[in-house]
Amino acid sequence: MTQKAKTFHKPSQYDLNSSNIARFIDYLEQHLGREFPNYDSLHNFSVEEMEEFWVLWWNYFAETSRVTHLSPKLQIKRKQDVLTSRDAERARWLSDSSFRLNYAQLALACANESEAVVQIDEDGKTTSYTKESLAKLVGRVANQLKQVGLSKGDVVCGYLTNSVASLVGLLATASIGAIWSSCSPEFGTRAVLDRFAQLSPKFLLATTSYRFNGKKFDKEENLKEIIRGLPSLKAVMLTALEDARDAHSLASLAAFERTVLCFEDVINSGDHDMFFEPMEFSDPLWILFSSGTTGLPKGIVQSHGGIVFEHSKVLSLHLDLGPGSRFFWYTTTGWMMWNFLVSGVLTGATVLLYDGSPTYIEVEHTFKVCAQNQVTHLGTSAPYLASCMRSQVDLGKLGLESVKTIGSTGAPLTGDVYHWVYSHLSSDVSLVSASGGTDLCTAFLGSSPLHEIREGEISCAMLGADVAVFDDKGDEVVDQVGELVIRNPMPSMPLYFWNDHDRLRLHEAYFATFEGAWRHGDWAEKRSDGGYIVYGRSDATLNRDGVRMGTADFYAVVEGVAGVKDSLVVDTSGFEKNGRLVLFVVTDARELDSYLKETIRDAIRRELSPRHVPDIIEAIQSVPRTINGKKMEVPIRKAFGATFLRDAVSEGSMANPESIEDLQTVIDRLKLQR
User: What are the tens digits of pLDDT across the range 640-654?
Assistant: First the structure.
């Protein structure tokens, strides 16, 4: 039995009796004539009787959201129709039923009447959109898509910031049955083409510039290169044009002999009747991309039905979003959290779209934006929270009284961050560490209003997710570290990878290790008290004397040492005859001298174990990271073999490609020393 972690937050009477999940339990008990005394009983029902669970969730959501009038085909008539199989790889959802829906139609039907979306610029300027005004914008852009000849199954790409233009583009695309995919304009040209060129898109909605950290970035030349690389395009629609450059921008791009439109002109045109293409459950909605850090990014295709079912469940039941909620998550359009964020409109919450730097002027800028806009549900990344902690930000002085939930994802959230948050904020706030991935566009580990929040733990497996931890033999283990798996189908699992309709690459990515179970690629522990700990990517696991360790706790200790700003650790086993544990550190102004190295070793030995102490500690200028801020552990580990670092990474997917040259020099020197 593992020692129980410190509890920081307990459910209130409102959480237990009046939250969305509490009301759903009342609904189930009335319909099924049986009791669900706690979350575990509800979760067991959701995975053991999953067909019944999804029918009842959908019926409840449709009734409470008042969307049943939209179409008789929104009804699921028999629970037998829900799944063809309980095998996670082979299951098909509602494949033989008359069920039809459209993500855009449901999003607009459920959107908050008075304030559906708020766009926030970096300087604090806000623009609000009612449900009606948002629907009009979507209708006008959808009409334009049809006018240039787009129809069901065509691909529309967005090269856009986190803005209303992006949301309108997604909803307009989905409304006509076309397929959406997006990249952030901070992506390099090569990274954009590595993604979009695979899709042969017919339409591109793009920004000509964006602002970040107080600086304007002109993207016109990048756009020209992108358009050259996408010969399938029929038309381009530009936004963020400035008056003085309108004519020049449009004329220069028109030279590519494609229709060139101005987004601002289109959204100010006349209204058009909205038509929503009826979509089967498994018709494609959007294409997300894997990080592409070690090769061409994989296009992950997800469905209208899968996303509506999954996002409505997790946002309503687990995050407790609804009318009156104000939902913010710091993200860009190149990260799955953008897709997750905008689905907040399905719950009737007001969705806030922030376009800018999370640390504009000062590191706590994100928190100040949320305070100014009365955010109730604040989402960010674990590295951002850790950065604020190291900067000794006092959250209690930022006016965050409206915040009920702080969500964290992107990396494991370490125990010291919990202590920091709750040293400044009330225990009424729920600090939720969630784990999932782009692969499913959701979290399958997280929390709910019924759960305590404990130090360093993720509270539970989400409803409908049969999560387990397997050892190397495929046997479930508890209170031991192993591979994180999902043993049942989830609605938002990929239909396929783009250009992989026989699903062979999908099989290799997730199902080749354990028969019938989704291997997620994370190293985790399921605890006997019901919580989970995720230690990091299993292919970046550190193996010392046969004992495997994750990297998250390692970083928490190392980056807590005075003088260390950032760090990255790799185990070179498998790439060197005698594997070494190599720690790279970025220091502040001080030198990485023998005293600082010994201080780091002492901290690791004391707070982790002697096994964790690295063989080598080396200084580097910066830690290579993806555009989404994740440390690039796996490619750097590969560079200790025969692979050059430049061949192991896609520079266009990096936030700091300039870090490669310095790191390669250090690795080359270390390889000579072995």
Answer: 876 677 777 777 778
CATH 3.40.50.11540 assigned to 541-673: no
**Sequence-separated (6 or more) residues with CB below 8 Å from residue 149:** 202, 234
Residues near 402 by Cβ (< 8 Å), separated by ≥ 6?
326, 371, 374, 375, 376
Q: Running DSSP on this structure, what letter comes out for residue 151?
A: -
Q: Helices (DSSP H) in 176-283: which residue ranges?
A: 189-196, 220-228, 246-254, 263-267
- Stretch 387-398: mean pLDDT, rounded? 94
Give me the residue spans of the domains in the chain. Answer: 541-673
SS3 content of the chain, % helix, strand, coil (to 5): 35, 25, 40
3-state secondary structure of 74: helix
Residue 197 pLDDT exceeds 90? yes
Write down how long the chain is: 674
Tell me, what's the pLDDT at 245? 47
Task: Dump pLDDT digits (tens) for 537-589.
Answer: 777 767 665 566 777 778 888 988 999 999 999 888 767 767 788 999 999 87
**pLDDT given for residue 237 in this prediction:** 94
Nearest C-alpha neighbor of 431 from the set 389, 479, 467: 389
pLDDT score of 244 more than 60: no
d(CA 320, CA 325): 9
Q: For 444, how many CA atoms within 13 A lie in the half-sphere containing its CB?
A: 27
Q: Where are the alpha helices (DSSP H) in 33-76?
A: 39-48, 50-64
| Contact present, 95 and 83 (Cβ < 8 Å) | no
User: What CA–CA distances, in Å, run from 339 to 142, 163, 287, 305?
Assistant: 19, 12, 10, 14
pLDDT per position as a tens digit, 296-312? 789 999 999 999 999 99
CB 440 within 8 A of CB 413: no
Classify residue 424 as exposed, middle or buried by CB count within 10 Å of its CB (0-12, 13-18, 19+).
Answer: middle
DSSP letter at 298? P
Residues with Cβ within 8 Å of residue 80, at least 6 apart in sequence: 51
CA triple 503-149-177, angle to 5 deg: 45
Q: Is residue 674's pLDDT more than 70?
A: no
For residue 172, give the H/E element and its range: helix 164-175
Residue 422: band (very low, low, confident or very high) from pLDDT cuts 50, 70, 90: very high
For residue 488, give Cα distances in angstroms to 65, 371, 515, 586: 27, 40, 12, 42
Task: Round to whole Å and give the CA distance between 87 and 421.
Answer: 41
Sign (positive or negative) of CA dihedral 473, 475, 481, 484: positive
Collapse the DSSP code of 82 into the 3-class scheme (helix H, G, I; strand E, B; otherwise coil) and give the result.
Answer: coil
3-state DSSP call for residue 513?
coil
Q: What is the dihedral of CA 477, 478, 480, 484, to 10 degrees?
A: 70
DSSP state for residue 462 in the 8-state scheme: P
- Could you tell me the CA-to-CA distances from 591 to 521, 554, 562, 600, 605 in Å, in that order? 36, 21, 12, 13, 22
Phi and psi at 425, nearest 5°, equal -115, 160
Please give the Cα distance from 551 to 536 (Å, whole number).
6
Closest CA to 443 of 425, 465, 428, 422: 465
Contacts (Cβ under 8 Å, ≥6 apart) of 413? 382, 385, 431, 433, 456
Buried-exposed string 613-627: b where 16+ CB fall within 10 A, e elsewhere: bbeebbebebbbbbb
451 residue type, one letter:
H
125 SS3 class: coil
- Answering whether pTM is above 0.90, one says no
Please state, in angstroms and rounded to a whole number, the distance separating the CA atoms of residues 467 and 317.
18
**Phi/psi at 15 (nearest 5 deg)?**
-55, -45
